[in-house]
From TrEMBL:
Gene3D superfamilies: Winged helix-like DNA-binding domain superfamily/Winged helix DNA-binding domain (1.10.10.10). It comes from the Bacteria. InterPro entries: ArsR-like_HTH (IPR011991), TR_Rrf2-type_CS (IPR030489), Tscrpt_reg_Rrf2 (IPR000944), WH-like_DNA-bd_sf (IPR036388), WH_DNA-bd_sf (IPR036390). Transmembrane segments: none annotated. Pfam families: Rrf2 (PF02082). GO terms for cellular component: cytosol. This is HTH-type transcriptional regulator. GO terms for molecular function: DNA-binding transcription factor activity.
Amino acid sequence: MGMMFSRVCQHALWAMIALAKAWQSRRWLKAAEIADTFGLPEPMVAKVLQKLVQAGLVQSQRGPKGGFRLRRPPDAVTLLDVVAAVEGAPWLNRCVLGWVQCNEAHPCPLHDLWVPHRAHQREFLQKVRVSDIAITAHF
């Protein structure tokens, strides 16, 4: 079973890629610019960017020369940082079958099989940096 990101999480990752590409020039990007780049609705991108601002990954500036940019270099931000910002920190600990009471004491049918994979997913998300995926992105 592969890792699946929610649509909101996908949009956050795309926004972070765009912001990483603009990092060197220290350019502020507008939500509309990011939305247009990926063919996304601007209100959805703006909402995702606000979550990233609240998590301390992105900074925002109002005004005609404002917009959004990364708060830290793209090689200092992991995919786990981004996922946790939009999905919440316990995202990886949720039951894959959606059971509310799934835990060691009351496991769902997949629990014991899934736990090792969950650890690998966390490790992967902690290892991969936004810079790693931005460098291969072409748009």
